[in-house]
Model the fold of this input.
Amino acid sequence: MSATSLYSKILGPAFERLAPALKSIHDARCAKRFVGRCDIRGGGLIARTIARLAGLPIAQTDVPIEVTVNTTDANEHWIRKFGSQRMQSRLTCRRQRVEERLGPLVLTFTLSADRERIVWSLYSARLALLPLPVTWLLECAATESVHDGRYGFDVSAAMRGVGLIVHYKGWLVEHHG
Done:
């Protein structure tokens, strides 16, 4: 097991104050698995094409979700299964920010936290090596929070001229075994 988790490195002392449901998904264990439910909304044809290129989930209601997190000293590999659809990303700490790679798309976020939630705010974006003006993205953010003692997530992305690309929201609990 790594001595320090990615989120502990980025959030510093705020990590220790997180509620147990938030801390457990972001601790330094090498392998974790979570299950839950979520709702996914998507946009029009162009938005669906963008979502497909980035490996984002398609619109579904009350879909089962399974999340596996594999941690190394340098990064975390997240594999999300929305029903039968698989989405994966790699998270790395870069200059006290989270860098998330989704296929050719790389998003960098600043994190802020209090006991009951973590807020992701888009800092920069690039497609492969090509920087994308953040102003192109009207909204690309995530909130992690605690609902009824469970880990909750709310992730959305929208682009100027395209509208909503994806919005998924739900909950997870740790799956042992």
